[in-house]
């Protein structure tokens, strides 16, 4: 296994956000748990962030080749073509199968589930899974209900065939979706429902979010999918050493941990520094938690997420031994 991540250098503080929006540092800190987020420069695209994270993951895994590249993103460079082939090309993996996967903030865990399936089926023996987002490209800087929340970044893992019981092997996944809530987090324009020529209004190109509705469903779904995934691995909730929760809102993670009865010190967080980075959130949190010593070899880890769709997904693993994480 290899793990790497990348944040664009520019940091935008709450004070910067509050200077142009009707909000305050205090509101953002207390209601969301964010102090700053990293925002890519205009010339940087999602593929640029993805390549940086993927290079670090390959170095971490000590490999120069992978059999498949899956890129989880809601912010591809273009509608057509997919961004993954471009990323694979820039990694020097020109001929490998490479495709994008769109499942909102659950995209990374969905993609690891697909990757594990490819490995189990014998279709591939190494798979690169990347979560990368330039959320700033789809967030309305004038919308105070989304602009303080989202940030840019990327994280990647290299998964490799091995024994099912060895540290680093992914356990059974629990995942699902409910399209009844498709409009709770969505970009109204630019797709086939509302093509670009009908969406001259720039606001239709931005994320629209019903924050309250998302919050309630996120707590419920993350709680349930965590329970399902732990049960499928044969673990009781008390057995979970670390719960890696998608960084959407610090209050969501706290509510999930409280509902499950998991002590806060077992629920690492980096939202304060990075905001909600959608599909990049989980690999960024894994990477930062490993580097700061919150993830240790053989710990029982549940990785759990929720996002637009709605979608949700969780999986388990024993934290690998000797993993050199690069960020
Ligand atoms: N600054 C100051 N006040 C704000 C604000 C901001 N940035 N955004 C909203 N408010 C105000 C509202 O206008 C409202 O004021 P009112 O009571 O006078 O009408 C009040 O704060 C409460 O609004 P509400 O929308 O109920 O806030 P909230 O506590 O639900 O927080 C979110 C809003 C968006 C932070 C929260 O709902 C959330 O995090 N939802 C989940 C979002 C998410 O995770 N999305 C990604 C999923 S993957």
From TrEMBL:
It is found in: Cytoplasm. One of its GO terms (biological process) is secondary metabolite biosynthetic process. The chain crosses the membrane at residues 301-321. Its main location: cytoplasm. InterPro entries: ACP_syn_III_C (IPR013747), ACP_syn_III_N (IPR013751), FabH (IPR004655), Thiolase-like (IPR016039). Pfam families: ACP_syn_III, ACP_syn_III_C. Residues 99-179 form the Beta-ketoacyl-[acyl-carrier-protein] synthase III N-terminal domain. Residues 247-251 are annotated as: ACP-binding. GO terms for cellular component: cytoplasm. The active site is at 105, 246, 276. GO terms for molecular function: 3-oxoacyl-[acyl-carrier-protein] synthase activity; beta-ketoacyl-acyl-carrier-protein synthase III activity. The keyword Transmembrane helix applies. Catalyzes the condensation reaction of fatty acid synthesis by the addition to an acyl acceptor of two carbons from malonyl-ACP. Catalyzes the first condensation reaction which initiates fatty acid synthesis and may therefore play a role in governing the total rate of fatty acid production. Possesses both acetoacetyl-ACP synthase and acetyl transacylase activities. Its substrate specificity determines the biosynthesis of branched-chain and/or straight-chain of fatty acids. Homodimer. PANTHER family: 3-OXOACYL-[ACYL-CARRIER-PROTEIN] SYNTHASE 3 (PTHR34069), BETA-KETOACYL-[ACYL-CARRIER-PROTEIN] SYNTHASE III (PTHR34069:SF2). This is Beta-ketoacyl-[acyl-carrier-protein] synthase III.
